[in-house]
Amino acid sequence: MPLTAVVLTCITYILALFGLAWATDNGRIPSRWLHHPFVYVLSLGVYASAWTFYGAVGLANTYGIGFLAAYLGASLAFVLAPVIFVPILRLCRSYQFSSLADLLAFRFRSRVAGVLTTLFMLMASIPLLSVQIQAVAESVNILNQRLQGPVVAQVFCVTLTLFTMLFGARHPSIRDKHEGLVFTLAIKSLLKLAAMIIMACYVLWGIFDGPNDLMEWLKLATLTQPQPINDDAWRTLLLAFFASVIVMPHMFHISFTENLNNRAFRQAAWVMPCFLILMCLVIPLIVWAGIRLTINGNPEYMILYLGLQQQQLLLTILSFIGGLAASSGIMIVSVLALAAMILNHLLLPTFQPNPRTDFYRWLLWSKRSLIVTVVWLAYFYYSTVGQAYPLYLQGLIAFVAFLQFMPGLLATLFWPRGHRLGFIWGLLTGMGYWLVSMLLPLVTGHTDAPSLSLYTDNWHQSALYSLTLNTLIFSIISIYSKATAKEQQVAQICALNALPSPVGKQVMVTNCQDFILCLTPHLGYRTAEKEVLQAMDDLALEPDDHRPSSLRRLRDRLETNLSGLLGPTEAEEILDSSIPSQGDDTLYKATDIHIIESQLSQYKSRLTGLAGELDSLRRFHRNILLHLPIGVCALGEDQEIALWNNAMVTYTGLSAEQVLGSTLNDLPHPWQDLLSGFICSGQARQSTQEVSWAAHTRWFSLQRLDIQAETDEAPVGEHSVILLEDETETKLIDDRLAHSERLISVGRLAAGVAHEIGNPVTAIACLAQNLKYETDVPEILEIAGQQVQQTERISRIVQSLLTFSHTGQHSDPRHYEPLNINDCISEAIHLVRLDHRGRQLHFINHCHTQLLVAGDAQRLIQVFVNLFNNARDASADGAPIEVRGYTDEFSVIVQVEDHGRGIPADALEHLFEPFFTTKEPGKGTGLGLSLVYSIIEEHYGKIEVQSRTAAAPKDSDGADAQEQSTGTCITLTLPRYLSVEASSEG
């Protein structure tokens, strides 16, 4: 192939690679394309590296169908994505893990676990990265002999280093996704698949004359039998490739760190197996085409030799670009993932930047420096060891190494008893055996030793022995070792279908600013401020939220965010050393039950079977508590509010979001005094406690219940439940009844006193009259006359009281007598004026003098007394109370109107109900208007109320608008009394 064509192809590919990533990051590509689930799914095609593009051909040429293990094992892993990938994604999302080292360090609560995972992952990845460099260098050299492998390898490493630094290390935290990188990987996957499918089509119809010709050739051709692969080796290959899909750094990074779509694994479960099957179907066609054309070159690059021998320039270029895409994709992502692992678990624990430096910038450039280091470390391995061995052999060694991480990963998801010491010693043993039996012979060149030979069928024994030793030691140590309480808690968090646990420590800071000051020595003020504000924004917390549970949640969120920035181990160490806390952090906080409740609400769709039934039962009981007609407030052992039902919200006006997680002492007045005082009193019950706030007065009764919370092992503390019941209506009814009883007693006493007063008044009147006969002195006679007049006035008053005291005795309507309604009104005015408050008002009677009705005079007098008393209570001193009366053909209509404050519209419909009053407690019984309504109904009449609470003139008769602005007008309509003569005349 001409040198110019090779150089132009490489330059075009590099420019397209950079241009596509730049266009994506700068918004030149529509976001609906970038966020489409299939874009992410196709990016998972980074699994198809140079090993599967080139090396699988060599493996097929040597082992026959053994090459299928690379595709079938990976396909099986993707099919099981909902079982394995989704739980890992949940953990990575919840705690912002960026690598397998982060996950295992968190699960086993061990920095050593993270360090060993990082070191061994780097050792396993270097041979695989060397394969990518070797594939590019040798493929370019095959295309043109003038381009030497080492030079091409160096150019390739420099190019990928720049690309990874520019588009893969643009942000220090994993919160910021690399959309340009993911989109570029998706395009590369399409290029790889297109290259393989086009080559397959060319083989079928270009080299062979269609499928029938291929079948005939296969029957007649004498093919060299490939080396047989036994069942153990086959199963080992399947297991190795199955594990590699999950634990390889580049696959973990794309699958979990860059994942933007939770549902993407549903598509990946069928798209990726189809993708891999299409690719693997091409491999035999390429091998058979090479055999038919008797190509003697390295069988791993048969796809390139086919294009060259057939002198198909475009086909050769497309095949080369496919291989270049396969090599560069895995190289970029692996280097990026390994650099992040080294930064979090090797560099940060040993070196901390000056707090005055820009921490984000330091992290960014540290990661970029590590990218350069990892790339050139892989190049060094390639130049010293890798180029001497075939691609598939080095790939197998790497995949067996990745297999050693599966026991720890499976224990994370399915075995909470797994112990950190078991994981550490198991990993050391398994990787040590792999290092001695597989990697060292490759590095030292001693591959001819029978026990270490990689060219025999015994290679799988090394893989199985290392994995078996790893698993056995891990299991034995875990069974016989007791994990710490913290490790047990985290193990339960990581277990499948578990929920994140709220932190149990009591944070010893009082506000968000304290968090910033505590983190400043480690992160610098600007970084600490940004991280705290970001965590507050994530939780939707206000700066003045000082609730203990909110501060714990903020610390929890800070640890999660810093985990994405620094790794979980370093984040935990910084927070433990900088933010003071107390209490046992190994137990669930009972006061954080509301947090668990919210998590269960989001998790309910994934609960099935018994767990789903129990959750339904929990929801049922919770709804009962929330909708009880009495207030329920549950307190944890440290007096933090864990439950605040709807009745409490109604009583206090405080929403559950405002109070959950706070203490009773944090509640506003008067609820702090009421509830906290009740708890401190130690009493089990308090009745009718008066509470006043914002012009409201209500009465509550309180009950307390202490509950001993227990776990399977031991009691964990005492919790309290407060029941708050509103007894305001009962209290007001009791007060009204008591007031009514007092009024009845006063009435009886007044009647008795009035009767007794009559005797001395009569004697005084007699004495005053006798003076007329015993003296002729004009002055004395005048005084005697005045005395007689006053005694007569007293007699009238006493007679009115006696007459009024007999009201309430229901009269038979058949014995109603005709009466003048004006007389009843005048008598009622006279009675009301006896009260000093009545004397301060101005009664205006506009009634006609001849308004006759049939009825009980005393009961009608009581009607008007009640109406005048209400008007008096609603009016200011000196205000007029007008009474108007007129008749129509069959009715007598009386209107009582005041100019007081009016009656609210929402009270009008309840105005005549017993015990309903708009007056303050103790100033009315709520029985007056109810009695009025019943008396009017007894007289076959009706009553209507009109009230004005806004400034609006009642009529246009020239009355003062200010006086007419408010007030109440009550209209009584009674049947008119018609004499027999008038009736007959009518």
From TrEMBL:
Lipid bilayer topology: Multi-pass membrane protein
GO biological process, one term: regulation of DNA-templated transcription
Localization: Membrane
Region (Disordered): 947-966
Catalytic activity line of the entry: ATP + protein L-histidine = ADP + protein N-phospho-L-histidine
Keyword flag Transmembrane: yes
Ranges for domain PAS: 617-670
Residue ranges crossing the lipid bilayer per the database entry: 6-25, 37-57, 63-91, 112-131, 151-169, 190-208, 233-256, 268-295, 315-348, 369-385, 391-415, 422-443, 463-480
Keywords for this protein: ATP-binding, Kinase, Membrane, Nucleotide-binding, Phosphoprotein, Transferase, Transmembrane, Transmembrane helix, Two-component regulatory system
Record InterPro entries: HATPase_C_sf (IPR036890), HATPase_dom (IPR003594), His_kinase_dom (IPR005467), HisK_dim/P_dom (IPR003661), HisK_dim/P_sf (IPR036097), Na/Glc_symporter_sf (IPR038377), Na/solute_symporter (IPR001734), PAS (IPR000014)
Name assigned to this protein: histidine kinase
Protein species of origin: Proteobacteria bacterium 228
